[in-house]
Design goal:
- The chain has eleven helices and ten strands.
- By secondary structure, the protein is α/β, with parallel strands linked by helices.
- The radius of gyration is 23 Å and the shape is globular.
- Helix content is 46%, strand content 14%.
């Protein structure tokens, strides 16, 4: 036993004298928790914000981790929907203000907001729907994240705010997503006062899709995700892309865009399969590919 202890002590001394080569890492028994956790089951990807001690702040590292989790195998036929949720009582408090001091400098600040904008636009540009599952507080860029998702299911205790004005940093980037989700005067009141709105007010104004009791949050969110999974992947992808495109257009241009896409949709193999199945009174058998049935 004495030799064993002595041997370990010598090993520790030798280890302390090692010069590590670049890229070499020494791992301790206690590993740092990942900032986000990605799980995948039954064609549904779960991404969990996993830094509750820092109120799931959207630090640069958190944003980069979220971006990676979103983009991984995004074109896989087995992926149909993404759910973003959070660990702890705060969905996300927004940016990490410690990263936004003068000490970090303009270049770093630019990188933070560029990455944030990239993540928010990715959510709307990827081919699968993204659902926010919220059970708690979502403020500033955290509220922006909810507004950027295609669907948001929240608990009755959830609240939403853009309080940046109260710390001298107006929520200009959150306003891009929020201003496109709620009426202008509602957005302006949120932005000018920083006052939170309740889950039911968020539903009333269109910031969220559904308000449910806390004990039913998981069930209700998964029910929506599973319904999405029953549809044809390329049809959903085409529909999502078209919706985003036409919403940025004037009425006449939007109708022109949507009319052309309807014709393109009919040319898809799954488009024709769905119509045949309806006529034949049976369930459609989707190919989940972008193959066409005719030119």
């Amino acid at each position: 036993m004495a030799r064993s202890l002595l041997s370990r002590a010598v090993d520790v001394v030798h280890l302390s004298r090692l010069t590590l080569l670049p890229g070499t890492r020494l791992y301790t028994q206690t590993q740092t928790e990942p900032l986000t956790v990605k799980q995948e089951n039954n064609r549904i990807r779960r991404i969990i914000l996993n830094n509750p001690k820092k109120r799931n702040a959207l630090s640069l590292a958190m944003l980069e981790s979220l971006r990676e989790n979103i983009l991984t195998d995004i074109d896989s036929e087995n992926l149909r929907v993404i759910i973003i949720s959070a660990k702890g009582p705060v969905f996300s408090s927004g940016h990490d203000l410690k990263e936004l001091t003068s000490a970090q400098g303009r270049e770093y600040h630019t990188q933070v907001f560029h990455t944030c904008a990239e993540v928010m636009t990715l959510i709307q540009d990827i081919p699968v729907p993204v659902i926010a599952m919220v059970n708690g507080i979502a403020t500033a860029a955290g509220c922006q994240l909810v507004a950027s998702c295609d669907i948001a299911v929240v608990t009755e205790k959830s609240t939403f705010a853009t309080p940046g004005v109260n710390v001298g940093l107006f929520c200009s980037t959150p306003a891009v997503a929020i201003g496109r989700a709620v009426p202008r005067k509602v957005a302006m009141e949120m932005l000018f006062t920083g006052a939170p709105i309740s889950a039911h007010d968020a539903l009333l104004h269109g910031l969220v899709s559904k308000v449910v009791p806390e004990e039913r949050l998981e069930e209700e969110t998964l029910a929506i995700a599973q319904r999405v999974c029953q549809a044809s992947r390329p049809v959903v992808a085409l529909g999502k892309a078209t919706f985003q495109r036409q919403m940025a257009q004037g009425r006449d241009a939007a109708y022109a865009t949507a009319s052309k896409v309807m014709v393109d949709n009919l040319a898809l193999r799954d488009g024709q399969e769905g119509i045949r199945a309806f006529i034949e009174k049976r369930k459609p058998v989707w190919s989940h590919t972008a193959e066409t049935a005719h030119d």
